[in-house]
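Changelog-adjacent note: as of this version, every example in the card shows the full chain rather than a window. The one below runs 127 residues end to end.
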Amino acid sequence: MAKVLGVGGVFFKANDPAALCKWYSEHLNFELDTGYDGASFKPNDMPSGSLTVWSPFKRDTQYFEPSKNDYMFNLIVDDLKEALVQVQAGGAQLNGEPEHFDYGSFGWFSDPEGNKVELWEPKAVDG
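Full-length structure tokens:
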């Protein structure tokens, strides 16, 4: 039987894909791919201890608020505090205060199109 090996992408609709890509490039240092609006992230570029989570939420969850979308995406960052400063300087609305757990720290913002984004700075795992 075949099995899933990981998440191959996050795809969503945007009012202005090129402008949204440019915003992420300017404020979170996305290295945009040439030839299409998007970025590729290689597993070897991610910090030790990071992983990709696939998790359905209950229909009545409030975790994605204030976004009106039925989804939220999580981005792994190397410096949560600085990333939040950068997106706020770019006009993003921060959502709540950062939270810290034994597996890493999290912060949230709404991008220029109102998508809620969760930033995760994982705690390094000695390998």
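Structural remarks: The radius of gyration is 15 Å.
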